[in-house]
Amino acid sequence: MTNPGAATWSFDEEDLAALTQTVDRFLADTGAHSALIADRAGQLVATMGRPLSFDPTVFATLTAADFSANDQLARLIGETDFTTLFHQGEKESMYVADVARRLILVTLFDNATPIGLVRLKMKPVVEELTAHLDRAYTRARELGTTQPNILAGAGDEIDELFNW
Amino acid sequence: MSMINYAAREINCKIVYYGPGLGGKTTNLEHIYGKVKPDTRGKLISLATETERTLFFDFLPVDLGTIRGFNTRFHLYTVPGQVYYNASRKLILKNVDGVVFVADSQVERMEANLESMQNLYDNLAEYGYDVTRIPFVIQYNKRDLPNAAPITDLQAALNPGWEPADVQRARITPDPYHAGENLVDQLSSGEWVEKAPYFEAVAINGDGVFDTLKAVSKLVLKALA
């Protein structure tokens, strides 16, 4: 299981490559044109597929807010959460899935892609992404004390950064 | 919860502007949006009602520079100040790295300030956070108004201080922003008291807005160091 209680988290090129590979395959299998991964706090992690025509940072934030608001709605009707959300437009639609309560995977697709196919292929993709995350956390725990803190001893540099 | 993205070489942090309704939280973000270079900020997003009252949140991403090769990206949020939007406020506080409390200096708004500060403590506590242990600054806004309360009254009501979290902090620490004042001080009774840094502001003109942002961002990065 992943650890949702960590105060700060990080991931490296290897983690990103694993996530990207899984999502790229999913896009090819379904015909969906783009995907975006954000964390539950709304911070953008990565985008995949066709380049997006909008600001992905803002999109990630609004998606996380959407997901959080829906979580609360779920609780009001006696559910723990909604693990997926589907927003259907006239031409463009989006399917949003929770990944281990850590990340959110947003898939964007047009009318040429059937929603049933996205839904069908999503489940194993989420399981695979969860496995990637678990590996990243296990490695982080093992490295734990030996992994250097990139800001350790950076007090003066931080002061300098705000010298404006 | 800050996120370090080694692949993109970014440090992402979340700062929330909290406080009573019509206190100037959105005005702070609007000023920052207007002043920083367009290539270092994203869009200012407002989920607001038709009368421009914040319904869910305002959001502005800004880059404050590079440190050790990592771009420092701060995500600034405001919460809706009105009492009945508490569910939205609580959601925005999730995974917060630093908080700015924007108080309305007007005497008539003292009660609203106190209520909002209590609400902040309560909502943070639900996530297991303690405002005295996270990067936290207070901004006394609307200092230009004739009915603004004296700073000493506002400080006594909203920033009375707390016992330092550990003994190492129990030493006289001058307030870098106010000569002759201390952030950590010892009372005549021998007790130690730590206070949040505070700033006076007139957000509508931009006075004090960047001082506040700099102070909280610096605290957030120092908490990571």
Characterise the protein shown here.
The complex is a heterodimer of chains A (164) and B (225). By secondary structure, chain A is α+β, with helices and mostly antiparallel strands. Chain A has one domain (13-143): 2-Layer Sandwich (Beta-Lactamase), CATH 3.30.450.30. Chain A has four helices and six strands; from the N terminus they run βαββαβββαα. Chain A has helices spanning 13-30, 56-76, 115-143, 155-161; strands at 9-11, 34-39, 44-49, 84-88, 92-99, 103-110. Chain A has a five-stranded antiparallel sheet with strand order 3-2-6-5-4, sandwiched between helices. Chain B is α/β, with parallel strands linked by helices. Chain B has two domains: 3-159 and 196-224, Rossmann fold (3-Layer(aba) Sandwich); 161-195, no CATH class. Helix content of chain B is 27%, strand content 29%. Chain B has five helices and eleven strands. Chain B has helices at 25-35, 86-93, 110-126, 151-158, 209-224, and strands at residues 3-5, 10-18, 45-48, 54-67, 70-78, 98-104, 136-141, 173-174, 182-186, 192-194, 198-200. In chain B, strands 1, 2, 3, 4, 5, 6, 7 and 11 form an eight-stranded mixed sheet that branches. Chain B has a three-stranded antiparallel sheet with strand order 8-9-10, with no helix packed on it. The two termini of chain B are 14 Å apart. The mean pLDDT of chain B is 93.
Describe the secondary structure blueprint for this structure.
The complex is a heterodimer of chains A (164) and B (225).
Chain A (H helix, E strand, L loop, with lengths): L8 E3 L1 H18 L3 E6 L4 E6 L6 H21 L7 E5 L3 E8 L3 E8 L4 H29 L11 H7 L3
Antiparallel strand pairs in A: 2-3, 2-6, 4-5, 5-6
Chain B lengths: L2 E3 L4 E9 L6 H11 L9 E4 L5 E14 L2 E9 L7 H8 L4 E7 L5 H17 L9 E6 L9 H8 L14 E2 L7 E5 L5 E3 L3 E3 L8 H16 L1
Parallel strand pairs in B: 2-5, 2-6, 6-7, 7-11
Antiparallel strand pairs in B: 1-2, 3-4, 4-5, 8-9, 9-10
